[in-house]
Every structure is written in C-alpha cells, then in structure tokens.
Amino acid sequence: MKIKRINISHLEEFIRSGEYRSYETVPITPERAWSQARNPHAQPDDPALWLALDDTGHLLGFIGSLPAKNHRTGERMGWNSCWWVDPERGNEAAMPLFYTFLKQWDLHVAFSDMTENTFSIVRQMDFCHLREEELFIGYFRMSFKEVLLPRKKLLYPLVPLFALMVPIINLFQLLRISTTGSNLKGMELEVKEKIDSGMLGFIRQHHPMEFSQRDEVEFNWITAQKWLVEGTEESREIEQKYPFSYTCMQFDWKWIVTRLKGEINTIMLASERDHILKILYYYGEAPGFALMAIKSLVASNTGIRRVIFAHPALLANRGMLNSLLLMKRIKIRYTGVSRKLAGEYPREMIMQLGDGDAVFT
Questions:
Q1: Which of 7, 108, 115, 317 is an S-S bond match for 77, by CB 3.0 to 4.6 Å?
Q2: 68-112: per-residue pLDDT in tens?
Q3: 189, 293 contact by CB (below 8 A)
Q4: Residue 144 burial (C-beta neighbours within 10 Å; 0-12, 13-18, 19+)
Q5: What's the DSSP call for residue 350?
Q6: What is the C-alpha to C-alpha distance for residues 62 and 219, in angstroms, rounded to an integer?
C-alpha cells in the first residue's frame, strides 16, 4: 500500500485525469474540487486529499483536509472533510490515512460532524476536546416516500392506506400551520440571497464565542459553488461512485434576517435541501424571534417538511415550535477540537452546525 497526496493546486487537474475516471470509487466530485481549489485559507501546496492505493492502483481509501484559519490565534488549521475506506479491502488503510492527516497539521485539527465510529476512535486517541451535542429535527409535513421507503416490505400491502393518509395529514397540517404559524408580533422578516455590510456588522458583534468566526470572504467563497447538484447523466454516473452526498432535487442557501423597529435582532444562514430547512448559523440574542421566523417560513413555504438546528439558544427555546409539529427527534451530534488547537474549549464556545465543510451539504 502507498499513500498518494493530492494538493490543492492539483485538484482540478486530478478530476480531469484518466486516473480519476478509472477508480471504482471516486474521492471527490468536480464541484467539491472546484470549490476547495478556491478556499481563501488554502495554500497551493496544502494537501486536499490523501489516497491509499494498493500495488495495482486500486483505491483502498481516502481522507480529506479542508485548510482553515483559527481566527483567535491567526494560526492555520485543518478540518477533517471526509474519511472512507473500502469495506472489503481497505481496513488496513484507515488508520495510516488518519495519522497522515493529523501529522500534516501537527494535531491542529477540528471535527464538525463525526460519525459515532470516528468519535470513538478520536476519544481513544485522547488528543481532542470532545462533545456530544443535541441536534433537533422537527417534522411539519409528511412525505409518502419517507413514510414508506424506510419500512419493511411487509408493509407494502398497506401502500394504498399510506397513499390516502399522507395527503389527509398534510391537509390538516396546512390548516393548522396557516392559523398559528405567522404571528410575527411586530417582527419584520426578510430572506436574502447574499450577505450585506449591515448583516456583517451584526454578525461581528455576535460571534465572539463562536468557534469558526467566519468572515465575508469565507461566506462568499461558500456560496460561490454548490457541492450538491441536481441530477444529470454525468452527475448520476459520479454519484454511483462517490460514497458521500452529491445529487439532490434542490439545494440553496438563504439568509434569514429579523428586525424589530427597523433594527436587526437575529440573523440565520440556512440551507434548503430537498424539503429540509437546516439552520447552519445563528447570530443574535433573541432566539424567540428566530424561531418565529422559522414558523413563518414553514407557514409560507409548503415545500418545507423538516427543520434542523443545533444552536444551544434555539434548542433552549424549541418548545415554541410544538404547536406546529407532527413529531420531533433529538439526535446526537459529535464534534471535537484538538487540545493543540485550543488549550481550553469552554462550554459557552459554540461550534455551529455549518462549521467545517458541513455548510456545503
């Protein structure tokens, strides 16, 4: 086995190569490569990927690195952006890949959204401040496919019943949401495609305890290229070879701004992906207004079926959504910051749901 390094400056050349096309599993998509090549915190010779290859050139596994900046100290760091090994042939490649990523950044690394297995490995290695945090999923409308597909084939005879139930439940929710979901109590709500100077000033005032502290340059880089695309013949071919998210029906970012008496009091950056609204960033000291904005968006957009958020201020006030919910779930989100990167990781320091590369998906 050998480990091959793909630098930031070679990403776009790599995805055009015959080597890339020859892999049964591809380690990156064209859209991710284009975006990562333009990361404002990346240097040309920074590694973006490491590939584990056997003697025949078969891809055994890969791990990704997203260069970033620790805004508190000015030092450079790396987010873990992906980690995959061939389930049949790649077990021995997993840890060498991981050690290579850690060595590159001299343990100045962070993890925004780990799997339970990765969390367990990092905990055993004992070099990180780790957290198990709550993630809220609120269900407002039903989807026939979501009801049926996860179920066992034994339920297939009940398809006609499900086909009748789902529209009836959604009609009930439409009436319920329309009467309770738009009470703004003097709040002004605005949805914007781009960030402006007034919003940036507000964010700077309200991100001192945020881990990432993203700036205008980063937000503009993020929204310059989507990583998730609508299915085409070419993208579907790549999707079959890529082990992470790639194609979807619809994906967009939106800035959700609330004002009281003309003054901004909350800002959220959200993604809307296939009927799911995910609150990636929240800024402000009025979470009730942010949750009223979410209620209003759910009321005005019948395409929103679920809402996801993890910011502690929103979690503490999530009961405001109960009057509209069909059901809710609390999942565990695993995050980590190395001790070399942050000697202390106080509870009040917040890793937002969009940190790392999670903002793209």
A1: 108
A2: 999 888 899 999 999 999 999 999 999 999 999 999 999 999 999
A3: yes
A4: middle
A5: B
A6: 27
